[in-house]
Amino acid sequence: MDKETILSWLKEEDPKRLEKLWQEADEVRARCVGDEVHLRGLIEISNYCINRCYYCGINRDIRTLARYRMTEEEIMAVVREIVKRGYGTVVLQSGEDPGIKRTWMSELIRRIKGETPLAVTLSLGERNVGDFAAWRKAGADRYLLKFETSNRYLYRYLHPPRQGEEIDRLILLEELSSLGYEVGSGIMVGLPGQTYEDLYEDLSIFRRLDLDMIGIGPFIPHPKTPLGCHPDWLSRSEVPNTDLMTCKVIALTRLLCPMANIPSTTALATVNPASGRILGLERGANVIMPNFTPIKYRKLYDIYPRPQETAPGGEDPLSIILSLGRRPGKGPGNRRRQIF
Ligand code: 5AD
Known about the structure:
Layout: H1 3-11, H2 15-33, E1 36-46, H3 72-84, E2 89-94, H4 102-115, E3 119-123, H5 129-137, E4 142-144, H6 152-158, H7 169-178, E5 182-189, H8 196-209, E6 213-218, H9 231-235, H10 243-256, H11 266-271, H12 276-282, E7 287-288, H13 295-298, H14 317-323, E8 327-328
Parallel strand pairs: 1-2, 1-7, 1-8, 2-3, 3-4, 4-5, 5-6
Helix pairs in contact: 1-8, 2-10, 4-5, 8-10
The structure holds 5'-deoxyadenosine (5AD).
5'-deoxyadenosine binds next to loops.
Protein backbone atom coordinates (compact mmCIF):
# COMPACT_ATOMS: atom_id res chain seq x y z
CA MET A 1 0.00 0.00 0.00
CA ASP A 2 1.48 3.36 -0.95
CA LYS A 3 1.48 6.54 1.08
CA GLU A 4 -1.38 8.16 -0.85
CA THR A 5 -3.64 5.16 -0.27
CA ILE A 6 -2.85 5.04 3.43
CA LEU A 7 -3.46 8.77 3.85
CA SER A 8 -6.72 8.62 1.97
CA TRP A 9 -7.96 5.75 4.18
CA LEU A 10 -6.95 7.72 7.26
CA LYS A 11 -9.03 10.67 6.03
CA GLU A 12 -11.96 8.63 4.68
CA GLU A 13 -15.30 9.51 6.30
CA ASP A 14 -17.80 7.70 4.07
CA PRO A 15 -19.15 4.67 6.00
CA LYS A 16 -19.86 2.77 2.76
CA ARG A 17 -16.30 3.09 1.50
CA LEU A 18 -14.93 2.33 4.96
CA GLU A 19 -16.82 -0.99 4.88
CA LYS A 20 -14.23 -2.09 2.35
CA LEU A 21 -11.37 -1.28 4.73
CA TRP A 22 -13.07 -3.14 7.60
CA GLN A 23 -13.70 -6.13 5.36
CA GLU A 24 -10.15 -6.30 4.06
CA ALA A 25 -8.71 -6.00 7.58
CA ASP A 26 -11.01 -8.75 8.86
CA GLU A 27 -10.11 -11.04 5.96
CA VAL A 28 -6.38 -10.56 6.50
CA ARG A 29 -6.87 -11.12 10.24
CA ALA A 30 -8.75 -14.38 9.62
CA ARG A 31 -6.23 -15.62 7.05
CA CYS A 32 -3.04 -14.65 8.89
CA VAL A 33 -3.77 -15.07 12.62
CA GLY A 34 -7.01 -17.05 12.54
CA ASP A 35 -10.19 -16.89 14.60
CA GLU A 36 -8.55 -17.30 17.99
CA VAL A 37 -8.77 -14.26 20.26
CA HIS A 38 -5.94 -14.38 22.78
CA LEU A 39 -6.72 -13.36 26.33
CA ARG A 40 -4.03 -11.64 28.40
CA GLY A 41 -4.68 -11.05 32.09
CA LEU A 42 -3.49 -7.55 33.01
CA ILE A 43 -2.19 -6.68 36.49
CA GLU A 44 -1.30 -3.05 37.17
CA ILE A 45 1.34 -3.73 39.82
CA SER A 46 2.39 -0.15 40.72
CA ASN A 47 1.16 3.37 39.99
CA TYR A 48 4.38 5.10 41.09
CA CYS A 49 5.87 7.05 38.23
CA ILE A 50 8.87 9.34 37.83
CA ASN A 51 7.72 10.73 34.46
CA ARG A 52 5.65 13.83 33.77
CA CYS A 53 3.80 12.80 30.59
CA TYR A 54 1.28 15.56 29.88
CA TYR A 55 -1.52 13.15 28.97
CA CYS A 56 -1.20 10.66 31.80
CA GLY A 57 -3.16 10.70 35.05
CA ILE A 58 -0.49 8.90 37.09
CA ASN A 59 2.31 11.30 36.16
CA ARG A 60 4.47 12.30 39.11
CA ASP A 61 3.12 15.85 39.30
CA ILE A 62 -0.28 14.59 40.43
CA ARG A 63 0.44 14.83 44.13
CA THR A 64 -3.12 14.10 45.27
CA LEU A 65 -3.07 10.56 43.90
CA ALA A 66 -2.37 7.84 46.51
CA ARG A 67 0.40 5.56 45.30
CA TYR A 68 0.57 1.77 45.65
CA ARG A 69 2.96 -1.03 44.82
CA MET A 70 1.56 -4.56 45.02
CA THR A 71 3.43 -7.17 47.08
CA GLU A 72 4.68 -10.41 45.59
CA GLU A 73 1.97 -12.34 47.44
CA GLU A 74 -0.78 -10.02 46.18
CA ILE A 75 0.47 -10.42 42.63
CA MET A 76 0.74 -14.22 42.92
CA ALA A 77 -2.86 -14.43 44.16
CA VAL A 78 -4.03 -12.62 41.00
CA VAL A 79 -1.72 -14.72 38.82
CA ARG A 80 -3.41 -17.88 40.16
CA GLU A 81 -6.81 -16.39 39.31
CA ILE A 82 -5.63 -15.75 35.73
CA VAL A 83 -4.46 -19.36 35.44
CA LYS A 84 -7.83 -20.56 36.80
CA ARG A 85 -9.61 -18.63 34.06
CA GLY A 86 -7.62 -20.59 31.49
CA TYR A 87 -5.65 -17.60 30.14
CA GLY A 88 -2.22 -18.12 28.59
CA THR A 89 -0.51 -14.84 29.46
CA VAL A 90 -0.11 -12.44 32.37
CA VAL A 91 0.85 -8.83 31.66
CA LEU A 92 2.62 -7.02 34.51
CA GLN A 93 2.27 -3.28 33.99
CA SER A 94 3.31 -0.23 36.02
CA GLY A 95 4.31 3.39 35.88
CA GLU A 96 8.04 4.04 35.55
CA ASP A 97 8.83 2.97 39.09
CA PRO A 98 12.46 2.72 40.24
CA GLY A 99 11.03 1.14 43.42
CA ILE A 100 10.54 -1.97 41.30
CA LYS A 101 14.01 -3.40 41.77
CA ARG A 102 15.77 -5.63 39.29
CA THR A 103 16.19 -8.58 41.68
CA TRP A 104 12.69 -8.34 43.15
CA MET A 105 11.20 -8.42 39.65
CA SER A 106 13.48 -11.30 38.59
CA GLU A 107 12.33 -13.35 41.59
CA LEU A 108 8.69 -12.65 40.78
CA ILE A 109 9.16 -13.66 37.13
CA ARG A 110 10.97 -16.88 38.18
CA ARG A 111 8.15 -17.70 40.54
CA ILE A 112 5.43 -17.19 37.93
CA LYS A 113 7.36 -19.22 35.36
CA GLY A 114 8.07 -21.94 37.93
CA GLU A 115 4.56 -22.24 39.34
CA THR A 116 2.37 -21.62 36.27
CA PRO A 117 2.33 -22.30 32.52
CA LEU A 118 1.81 -18.58 31.76
CA ALA A 119 3.74 -16.48 29.29
CA VAL A 120 4.94 -13.33 31.07
CA THR A 121 4.66 -9.93 29.41
CA LEU A 122 6.29 -6.93 31.06
CA SER A 123 5.17 -3.33 30.56
CA LEU A 124 7.27 -1.40 33.05
CA GLY A 125 8.48 1.50 30.94
CA GLU A 126 12.02 2.61 30.14
CA ARG A 127 14.61 0.59 32.08
CA ASN A 128 18.31 -0.04 31.55
CA VAL A 129 19.57 -2.92 29.45
CA GLY A 130 20.80 -4.70 32.59
CA ASP A 131 17.22 -4.90 33.86
CA PHE A 132 15.88 -6.04 30.49
CA ALA A 133 18.56 -8.76 30.29
CA ALA A 134 18.05 -9.98 33.88
CA TRP A 135 14.28 -10.23 33.43
CA ARG A 136 14.64 -12.04 30.15
CA LYS A 137 17.03 -14.49 31.85
CA ALA A 138 14.48 -14.94 34.65
CA GLY A 139 12.00 -16.10 32.00
CA ALA A 140 10.05 -13.03 30.83
CA ASP A 141 8.72 -13.65 27.32
CA ARG A 142 7.56 -10.28 26.05
CA TYR A 143 7.98 -6.54 26.63
CA LEU A 144 5.58 -3.74 25.76
CA LEU A 145 6.85 -0.18 25.30
CA LYS A 146 4.74 2.22 23.27
CA PHE A 147 6.54 4.91 21.31
CA GLU A 148 3.23 6.87 21.50
CA THR A 149 3.92 9.06 18.44
CA SER A 150 6.62 9.12 15.77
CA ASN A 151 6.49 12.93 15.67
CA ARG A 152 9.68 13.83 17.55
CA TYR A 153 8.55 17.37 18.37
CA LEU A 154 5.19 16.24 19.68
CA TYR A 155 6.86 13.42 21.64
CA ARG A 156 9.32 15.80 23.25
CA TYR A 157 6.56 18.25 24.06
CA LEU A 158 4.39 15.57 25.71
CA HIS A 159 7.27 13.94 27.62
CA PRO A 160 9.38 16.56 29.37
CA PRO A 161 12.77 14.86 29.71
CA ARG A 162 14.19 14.10 33.16
CA GLN A 163 17.44 15.96 33.90
CA GLY A 164 18.17 16.59 30.25
CA GLU A 165 18.38 12.90 29.35
CA GLU A 166 16.46 11.88 26.29
CA ILE A 167 15.73 8.25 25.71
CA ASP A 168 14.91 6.97 22.24
CA ARG A 169 12.26 4.32 22.67
CA LEU A 170 12.91 2.94 19.19
CA ILE A 171 16.45 2.06 20.30
CA LEU A 172 15.10 0.38 23.45
CA LEU A 173 12.74 -1.66 21.27
CA GLU A 174 15.70 -2.86 19.19
CA GLU A 175 17.57 -3.81 22.37
CA LEU A 176 14.58 -5.75 23.68
CA SER A 177 14.28 -7.55 20.41
CA SER A 178 17.93 -8.58 20.35
CA LEU A 179 17.58 -9.95 23.90
CA GLY A 180 15.01 -12.36 22.48
CA TYR A 181 11.83 -10.75 23.77
CA GLU A 182 8.70 -10.64 21.69
CA VAL A 183 8.34 -6.90 21.38
CA GLY A 184 5.23 -4.77 21.47
CA SER A 185 4.74 -1.09 20.92
CA GLY A 186 2.01 1.29 19.91
CA ILE A 187 0.62 4.78 19.76
CA MET A 188 -2.20 7.04 20.83
CA VAL A 189 -4.60 8.34 18.19
CA GLY A 190 -5.89 11.92 18.30
CA LEU A 191 -3.19 13.55 20.41
CA PRO A 192 -3.39 17.34 20.28
CA GLY A 193 -1.23 18.47 17.37
CA GLN A 194 -0.98 15.01 15.76
CA THR A 195 -1.40 14.98 11.97
CA TYR A 196 -2.40 12.37 9.38
CA GLU A 197 1.20 12.44 8.16
CA ASP A 198 2.27 11.52 11.70
CA LEU A 199 -0.07 8.51 11.68
CA TYR A 200 1.34 7.48 8.32
CA GLU A 201 4.84 7.59 9.87
CA ASP A 202 3.62 5.61 12.90
CA LEU A 203 2.29 2.90 10.58
CA SER A 204 5.57 2.85 8.64
CA ILE A 205 7.48 2.34 11.88
CA PHE A 206 5.19 -0.55 12.89
CA ARG A 207 6.08 -2.21 9.61
CA ARG A 208 9.79 -1.41 9.73
CA LEU A 209 10.26 -2.70 13.29
CA ASP A 210 8.41 -5.93 12.47
CA LEU A 211 6.64 -5.66 15.83
CA ASP A 212 5.09 -8.74 17.45
CA MET A 213 2.39 -6.75 19.22
CA ILE A 214 0.86 -3.38 18.37
CA GLY A 215 -1.45 -1.52 20.75
CA ILE A 216 -3.49 1.39 19.40
CA GLY A 217 -5.82 3.47 21.56
CA PRO A 218 -7.51 6.86 21.34
CA PHE A 219 -6.07 9.69 23.41
CA ILE A 220 -8.48 10.32 26.31
CA PRO A 221 -8.13 13.70 28.07
CA HIS A 222 -7.66 13.40 31.83
CA PRO A 223 -8.87 16.52 33.68
CA LYS A 224 -5.98 16.48 36.17
CA THR A 225 -3.28 16.56 33.47
CA PRO A 226 -1.86 19.50 31.48
CA LEU A 227 -3.54 18.25 28.26
CA GLY A 228 -6.86 17.58 29.98
CA CYS A 229 -6.96 21.15 31.28
CA HIS A 230 -6.90 22.54 27.75
CA PRO A 231 -9.74 20.81 25.87
CA ASP A 232 -9.63 23.56 23.21
CA TRP A 233 -6.29 22.15 22.00
CA LEU A 234 -8.15 19.05 20.87
CA SER A 235 -10.71 20.86 18.76
CA ARG A 236 -7.83 22.30 16.78
CA SER A 237 -6.39 18.85 16.09
CA GLU A 238 -6.48 17.39 12.63
CA VAL A 239 -6.84 13.79 13.86
CA PRO A 240 -9.96 13.14 15.96
CA ASN A 241 -9.53 11.04 19.12
CA THR A 242 -12.56 8.90 18.28
CA ASP A 243 -13.38 5.21 18.09
CA LEU A 244 -13.76 5.50 14.31
CA MET A 245 -10.31 7.05 13.84
CA THR A 246 -8.79 4.41 16.13
CA CYS A 247 -10.46 1.62 14.13
CA LYS A 248 -9.02 3.01 10.88
CA VAL A 249 -5.53 2.84 12.36
CA ILE A 250 -6.14 -0.68 13.71
CA ALA A 251 -7.42 -1.88 10.33
CA LEU A 252 -4.49 -0.35 8.42
CA THR A 253 -2.08 -1.86 10.95
CA ARG A 254 -3.56 -5.30 10.27
CA LEU A 255 -3.08 -4.79 6.52
CA LEU A 256 0.52 -3.60 6.91
CA CYS A 257 1.54 -6.04 9.69
CA PRO A 258 -0.63 -9.07 8.93
CA MET A 259 0.93 -11.44 11.49
CA ALA A 260 1.08 -9.07 14.46
CA ASN A 261 -0.95 -9.56 17.63
CA ILE A 262 -3.20 -6.52 17.87
CA PRO A 263 -5.37 -5.88 20.95
CA SER A 264 -8.79 -4.32 20.92
CA THR A 265 -7.76 -1.87 23.62
CA THR A 266 -9.41 -0.73 26.84
CA ALA A 267 -9.03 2.87 25.68
CA LEU A 268 -11.11 2.02 22.59
CA ALA A 269 -13.72 0.36 24.80
CA THR A 270 -13.67 3.48 27.01
CA VAL A 271 -14.58 5.93 24.22
CA ASN A 272 -17.29 3.54 22.98
CA PRO A 273 -18.45 1.46 25.97
CA ALA A 274 -21.29 -0.21 24.07
CA SER A 275 -19.27 -1.65 21.20
CA GLY A 276 -15.64 -0.43 21.13
CA ARG A 277 -14.22 -3.82 22.12
CA ILE A 278 -16.28 -5.59 19.43
CA LEU A 279 -15.50 -3.05 16.69
CA GLY A 280 -11.78 -3.51 17.33
CA LEU A 281 -12.07 -7.29 16.99
CA GLU A 282 -14.13 -6.95 13.80
CA ARG A 283 -11.68 -4.53 12.22
CA GLY A 284 -8.33 -6.24 12.63
CA ALA A 285 -7.69 -6.98 16.31
CA ASN A 286 -7.14 -10.49 17.72
CA VAL A 287 -6.30 -9.92 21.40
CA ILE A 288 -8.15 -8.74 24.51
CA MET A 289 -6.43 -7.77 27.76
CA PRO A 290 -8.98 -8.01 30.59
CA ASN A 291 -8.03 -6.12 33.73
CA PHE A 292 -7.34 -8.27 36.83
CA THR A 293 -5.95 -5.52 39.05
CA PRO A 294 -7.59 -5.80 42.51
CA ILE A 295 -10.49 -3.34 42.75
CA LYS A 296 -8.89 -1.35 45.60
CA TYR A 297 -5.92 -0.49 43.39
CA ARG A 298 -7.73 -0.16 40.08
CA LYS A 299 -9.12 3.31 40.72
CA LEU A 300 -5.62 4.45 41.63
CA TYR A 301 -4.20 3.30 38.29
CA ASP A 302 -5.84 6.36 36.85
CA ILE A 303 -3.98 6.85 33.54
CA TYR A 304 -7.19 8.15 31.95
CA PRO A 305 -10.81 8.32 33.15
CA ARG A 306 -12.42 4.91 32.67
CA PRO A 307 -15.63 3.41 33.97
CA GLN A 308 -15.25 1.41 37.20
CA GLU A 309 -15.49 -2.30 36.51
CA THR A 310 -16.75 -4.41 39.34
CA ALA A 311 -15.74 -7.99 38.53
CA PRO A 312 -12.17 -9.18 38.02
CA GLY A 313 -11.64 -9.43 34.29
CA GLY A 314 -14.42 -6.89 33.69
CA GLU A 315 -16.99 -7.34 30.88
CA ASP A 316 -17.33 -10.98 29.97
CA PRO A 317 -14.69 -11.42 27.25
CA LEU A 318 -15.72 -14.98 26.47
CA SER A 319 -19.26 -14.04 25.47
CA ILE A 320 -17.94 -11.21 23.26
CA ILE A 321 -15.57 -13.63 21.52
CA LEU A 322 -18.23 -16.31 20.99
CA SER A 323 -20.83 -13.77 19.79
CA LEU A 324 -18.44 -12.89 16.96
CA GLY A 325 -18.11 -16.53 15.91
CA ARG A 326 -14.52 -16.58 17.15
CA ARG A 327 -12.92 -18.70 19.87
CA PRO A 328 -10.68 -18.01 22.86
CA GLY A 329 -7.00 -18.68 22.15
CA LYS A 330 -5.33 -21.72 23.68
CA GLY A 331 -1.80 -21.60 25.10
CA PRO A 332 0.45 -18.54 25.30
CA GLY A 333 -0.61 -17.02 21.98
CA ASN A 334 2.81 -16.16 20.65
CA ARG A 335 3.15 -14.14 17.48
CA ARG A 336 2.83 -16.38 14.45
CA ARG A 337 5.75 -16.38 12.06
CA GLN A 338 3.98 -18.18 9.25
CA ILE A 339 0.49 -18.32 7.88
CA PHE A 340 -0.89 -21.63 9.09
N1 5AD B 1 -5.29 8.54 26.93
C1 5AD B 1 -5.02 7.39 26.26
N2 5AD B 1 -4.02 6.58 26.56
C2 5AD B 1 -3.24 6.93 27.59
N3 5AD B 1 -2.19 6.34 28.11
C3 5AD B 1 -1.76 7.08 29.14
N4 5AD B 1 -2.53 8.16 29.29
C4 5AD B 1 -3.46 8.09 28.33
C5 5AD B 1 -4.53 8.93 27.95
N5 5AD B 1 -4.80 10.06 28.61
C6 5AD B 1 -1.64 5.13 27.56
C7 5AD B 1 -0.35 5.43 26.85
C8 5AD B 1 0.71 4.82 27.74
C9 5AD B 1 -0.05 3.84 28.59
C10 5AD B 1 0.46 3.80 29.97
O1 5AD B 1 -1.39 4.26 28.61
O2 5AD B 1 -0.31 4.84 25.57
O3 5AD B 1 1.68 4.12 27.04
